[in-house]
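Sample A.
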Amino acid sequence: MKLNECEKGSTYFVHRVLVAEAIGRRLEALGVNEGTEITVLNKKGSGSVIVKVRGTRLAMGRKIAEGIEAEKERAASHLEFADGRGGRR
């Protein structure tokens, strides 16, 4: 499910990140990688989400939150950019 569809107060694992390359690199630098545990702290009506990742609170807008797929259980996953290129560089 997309991050902005996740339940407030629940913990998930990042399954896949499907965003523009520059945003993907920034998220990776902030610790939002596949397999990372992420807790949804708050959700706004506009679609923006506040999450806790590795002890840090991050706020992201609807477009970015829609590009992050999360699952309740840890699963094998990978980073994939919007242009279809995958993997880490």
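Sample B, a different protein:
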Amino acid sequence: MSLDTARMGACATRRYYKFNMVTRREGIKTAALTALSYSRVLGANDRIQFGLIGCGERGLYVASIFQKTAEVDVRAVCDVFGDHTDKGVAQAAGAQPFTDHRRLLEMQGLEAVLIATPDHWHKAIAIDALNAGKDVFVEKPLTRLREEGPEIVRAARVNNRVCQVGMQQRSGEVYLEARERFVRSGLLGKISHVDCVWHGGANRALPTEPAQKPANLDWVRFLGPVNYRDWNPAQYLDFRAFLDFGGGKLTDFGAHWIDVAHMFMDQDGPLSAVAAGGVYYDRHDGRTAPDTISALFEYPGGFTVSFISLAVDNGPAYKVEFLGSGGRLLVDRNHYEFRAAEKGAEPVIQRFPGDITGQHVRNFLDCCRSRKLPNADVYIGHRAAQAALLANQSYLEKRRIRFDPQREEVLPFSA
């Protein structure tokens, strides 16, 4: 049962409160922070004091969307690479630069942060920010490891903070309309399968330059929780090609599309996951994340979800397609298509121009003021990443993973 709806079932309620069990000391801390948050409830005209952690291409882009709302003041930027920090300051005149996110979080008056770092830093920075009393917008995937999710959820709940994960489909009008019009209305009938496709394009050789680490790049801090290794330009510039730093295509692309399945089907935990693939276009450059991956998930309620991502330039368009007894519904970020099961029925096609990231930013800012749970609440982000990481475990262990979605535990090997 998903937390996406206001009507949580008993099982979902138990899961929700599993992450809210706090000690007496934590309870006192929560009450104090809650009182503090009420003392500074934002008014309609108040500007949110904002920090950006991770000034790469994505971070700067999403920060620019926040800035266009004219409701935030970007007061601080942080990155391990000085060149990136300089770009952040150039985009947000007057912002104070940092290389350590902990120093940024110490700034007086800062109320919210955008975390757009590589995946392996999401947990530590998110928890530090939540414990510092900040509302958080964190890019997906929420986690690099499955066990990280409950810790971040706990920090958000204990500190009574808004934590939105960058799965913008949850706020996109195209997805909300398609779900209401065809799924919740019953037009699709019994849905037995969801087909998710997102190809990543043909492999390119990983970078070998700069051979010498830039003097203004803190490589040790970039590595963070990852085991130390000497400077490697490929691992810095193309970290998604290495499973030490993230989950490859399954968490980069797959977490988005798996979450759409969760959103439409009102289920958020698979019973099993199996995946196969590999580095099939091997350039002998050390990459460990598969360039080709195919995964299959089984869910309560009697349906399956597949995800496939190939290293090709000429594959089919990315999509999530719901296959039901009443027809089929294809949806992506800019359009949906419904084709009824009846022979000769005219397809229903609706297009939505523009980037839905702005709608997701809008939802986060609204929740910073209302204190409601955002559309892609941290728990939702945890469950999407969890499913993708189960498939990664299957790929690495070369076996079907059976999972208890209520207890959130991998089950023992079956005979």
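Observation for Sample B: Residues 167 and 362 are 13 Å apart (CA to CA).
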